[in-house]
Specification:
Helix content: 10-25%
Structural class: alpha+beta
Largest sheet: 7 strands, mixed
Distance between the termini: 37 Å
Number of strands: 20
Number of helices: 16
Mean pLDDT: 90
Radius of gyration: 23 Å
Shape: globular
């Protein structure tokens, strides 16, 4: 999944596992307050956020912060579990009774809906509604989010979603409870695919245009009560949701209240003080300047930390000259000073230096460094030799896209300074955080490079390498292949791996493919970022979820004392 720049700072953790009733990141015993406390029913949980959600429409949003939020208002056929540690990455039934029944060697998958499922207006959720929601993924304007439905489900090449093209015959609904998907090729892990946001049910005939971006149609435990784009959002209970049908969501608070547009330093100050309603608040990863301030025993009790399951990287647009030259891309990989990039985000406390595309949390990942440099400080001389061999010893000018967020801008400056000795002039183009992914995912608006990140949709190489580097999946909008790499050897290897029915063997093969891709240098892996979060004194049921770049699992968190 594309990831935000820790908009609310709720980013995925793959290292911390808190127990339900005690313990925290510092290893000390938690008392009645703090992350380890049990959550009560009731109250309003506050979320302090730097930027707004990208989209409320589940076919459009595909970044870490919004994926976590979606689980409060939407349900899918399956979903990831609600638990700390590895248990949170397990795929479990949600709207469906199980994780799917394959047939035809894994090319056909059948799911049966549970009884007692309703939208917020009281209308029953049927297989036709699930089909309608999935079909929206093919709409060229709406379906800019998760790519897996379009990549895996068979469909005519001319199909453009239900509003423009009508029915999609490769998704069958023989009755109101049954939905059958016909795939292009076998896919052993399709039960994980249907946990994606694009498998959210939408009432048949609805959801055209921007309808769901302004007024979502809830199938989960909460519904939208008030939304001021860019400023605030409030969720309240959906009384048509039945807990008996849902083994994942605890729905502890009566309401969630987001406040958007806050300066990150202001958020830190409020969370450290913990006054008033901020005692009931969660927020993002703290700023580097605040790390030293939270070392007191009282604040450590409220901290949560762990290694994020994502890779922050710089995509290099291989269609732009001179970045179409592999030696130029390799030179940039050698020259970037990852130490200063890490310093820009707060040093080793908040990030590890990245060497490969896949982060350490991916099954089958290979630990290697294709472009080594002394202490991660860059190999300028090695880079200069490559540039000279490529005919660009005199340098060139390139434009680097980044977000309007201090940390990301600092990373861009670090890259700019690292490439300057090679006479590469880096022009930094700053884009509004809320629209960043939509802009850089539109191929006509892409510049030479962009600082971005990717998190797994489940801990498999299948969710990392094909979305980012399969050249046949490059799209005009919602494009994940920011490098626009379309290499026949890489495409062929992806096809070869996709035929493997053993998921363990496939993950190992993806580890090898990581090396093959990095030889082409379409990206510069920068960091594996860490999470360091501070929660309010009245927060309970908080743990970092391994499966989301949303960090604190919103479906389990709540208030320790709902009456405060």
């Amino acid at each position: 999944m594309k990831r935000t720049s820790m908009l609310v700072g709720l980013v995925a953790s793959a290292a911390l596992a808190l127990t339900a009733c005690g313990g925290n990141a510092s290893g000390t015993k938690s008392d009645s307050a703090g992350p380890g406390a049990k959550a009560a029913q009731g109250g309003t949980l506050q979320v302090l956020a730097n930027a707004a959600f990208s989209h409320l429409d589940p076919a459009r949003g595909f970044d870490g912060g919004v994926n976590n939020f979606y689980r409060l208002i939407y349900r899918t056929l399956t979903t990831q579990g609600a638990a700390p540690g590895a248990d949170g990455t397990k795929i479990v039934p949600d709207l469906a009774t199980d994780t799917g029944k394959p047939a035809d060697g894994g090319k056909t998958w059948t799911f049966t809906l549970k009884d007692g499922l309703f939208f917020e207006n009281g209308a029953p959720i049927t297989s036709a509604d699930v089909k309608w929601g999935v079909s929206r993924a093919w709409d060229p304007e709406i379906g800019i989010g998760s790519p897996y439905a379009k990549q895996l489900i068979a469909a005519p090449a001319t199909y453009q979603g239900p509003y423009k093209s009508g029915d999609l015959s490769t998704i069958e609904t023989p009755d109101a409870k049954t939905i059958v998907f016909h795939l292009k090729k076998p896919f052993a892990d399709f039960g994980s695919v249907v946990a994606q946001n694009t498998f959210t049910p939408v009432p048949k005939g609805q959801g055209a245009g921007n309808q769901l971006d302004s007024k979502p149609i809830s199938s989960g435990p909460y519904k939208l009560a008030d939304y001021k784009p860019g400023a605030s959002l409030k969720l309240v209970r959906n009384d048509k949701w039945d807990k008996l049908t849902d083994d994942v969501r605890t729905a502890n608070p009566d309401a969630f209240q987001w406040t958007f547009g806050l300066d990150p330093a202001t958020i830190d100050e409020r969370m450290i003080a913990g006054q008033g309603t901020d005692a009931d608040a969660i927020a993002g990863t703290i700023q580097a300047a605040s790390v030293a301030r939270i070392q007191t025993p009282q604040l450590k009790q409220r901290t949560m930390s762990g290694l994020g399951g994502c890779t922050t990287y710089m995509g290099l647009n291989t269609t732009k000259k001179p970045l179409d030259n592999v030696k130029v891309r390799q030179a940039i990989n050698l020259a970037v000073n990852k130490q200063t990039v890490r310093d820009a985000v707060g040093g080793s406390t908040l990030a590890e230096i990245a060497t490969s595309i896949q982060p350490p949390t991916i099954t089958g990942r290979v630990d290697y460094d294709p472009y080594p440099s002394p202490d991660g400080k860059g190999d300028v001389e090695g880079a200069r030799k490559l540039l000279t061999a490529a005919g660009f010893g005199g340098g060139f000018t390139m434009t680097l896209d980044t977000r309007a967020q201090p940390k990301m801008q600092a990373m861009a400056v670090a890259i700019q300074q690292a490439l300057a000795p090679l006479k590469i002039t880096v022009k930094i183009n700053t884009i509004d955080t809320a629209t960043y992914y939509e802009v850089i995912g539109t191929t006509s608006q892409q510049h030479d490079a962009a600082i971005t990140g990717w998190c797994p949709d489940w801990p498999s190489g299948a969710t990392f390498l094909p979305p980012l580097f399969d050249g046949r999946n490059i799209t005009a909008k919602g494009n994940s292949n920011l490098a626009q790499l379309n290499d026949p050897g890489v495409n062929a290897k992806i096809d070869e791996i996709s035929k493997l029915t053993d998921v363990t063997a496939a993950n190992k093969a993806y580890g090898d493919l990581d090396k093959q891709i990095m030889a082409l240098a379409p990206v510069v892996p920068l960091l594996y970022e860490k999470v360091l979060m501070l929660v309010g004194t009245n927060i309970g049921g908080a743990y970092l979820h391994d499966g989301f770049s949303g960090g604190i699992d919103l479906v389990s968190v709540g208030l320790k004392d709902a009456g405060k």
